[in-house]
Amino acid sequence: DAMVIQNPRYQVTQFGKPVTLSCSQTLNHNVMYWYQQKSSQAPKLLFHYYDKDFNNEADTPDNFQSRRPNTSFCFLDIRSPGLGDAAMYLCATRKGSGSTDTQYFGPGTRLTVL
Amino acid sequence: GQNIDQPTEMTATEGAIVQINCTYQTSGFNGLFWYQQHAGEAPTFLSYNVLDGLEEKGRFSSFLSRSKGYSYLLLKELQMKDSASYLCAAMDSNYQLIWGAGTKLIIKP
């Protein structure tokens, strides 16, 4: 089945220790998104790619970086996680940027910072 | 600015009907999405409206009024598994989703 996969599902890291979250998709969608979602809050868009064109939201902290080496994969790097970065990180894909296609989400990675 | 408002929490009884309201303000408008999110899981797509009116899909229906900046999600014949958060998201002129914080729906037997 075509889908969006995120690994790992649960990630525990120590304060200040870099961590990388991964997302892959078999939908062959052009657009990929990274969201951060804290409990009972709206998903907050961090980055999105249309193909390899990278778009950084204005209020995304410099601590967060992203890479998309090919259509299928996208990575979220948190260089020095703080306690406030503990959240669910959601990857989503969409077929095209200039359309109203639905965003499809992966299962998410829950990050705990000790 | 861009804004989505929806109630924080609602409670309903199994077998009943519940309506979850959402109002939005966006720079341009390319449609209104509803997603369901169970605790600790990712959002899953429920419905999309871009024209005024009601879209029915089984037990779930979604309504849109563009002139009022208003939408609702109607859930009929509620089941315990419908206990979840329901997220309203409006697509702006840049095709980006502006998300509400979600309405937590509690179903009681």
Protein described:
The complex is a heterodimer of chains A (114) and B (109). By secondary structure, chain A is mostly beta strands. In chain A, 0% of the residues lie in helices and 51% in strands. The model of chain A has no long low-confidence stretch (mean pLDDT 92). Chain B has 109 residues and is mainly beta. In chain B, the strands form two sheets. In chain B, strands 2, 4, 5, 9, 10 and 11 form a six-stranded mixed β-sheet that branches. In chain B, strands 1-3-8-7-6 form a five-stranded antiparallel β-sheet, with no helix packed on it. In chain B, β4 (32-37) and β5 form a beta hairpin. In chain B, 36% of the residues are buried. The model of chain B has no long low-confidence stretch (mean pLDDT 95).
Which key features would you list for this structure?
heterodimer; A: mainly beta; 4-stranded antiparallel sheet; B: 109 residues; mainly beta; 6-stranded mixed sheet; 5-stranded antiparallel sheet; 11 strands; 0% helix; 57% strand; globular
Anisotropy-based shape of chain A? globular
Q: What order do the SSEs of chain A take from the amino end to the carboxyl end, as H and E?
A: EEEEEEEEEEE
Termini separation of chain B: 41 Å
Oligomer: heterodimer
Structural class designation of chain A: mainly beta
Outline the low-pLDDT stretches of chain B.
none
The overall average pLDDT of chain A, rounded, is 92
Main sheet properties of chain B: 6 strands, mixed
Strand segment count of chain A = 11
Overall mean pLDDT score of chain B? 95
What is the percentage of strand-forming residues of chain B? over 45%
> What is the overall number of helices of chain A?
0
Uncertain ranges of chain A: none
Q: Tally of extended strands of chain B? A: 11
Shape of chain B: globular
* Helix content bin of chain A: under 10%
Please give the radius of gyration of chain B in angstroms. Answer: 13 Å
Give, in order, the helices and strands of chain B: EEEEEEEEEEE
The separation of the N and C termini of chain A measures 36 Å
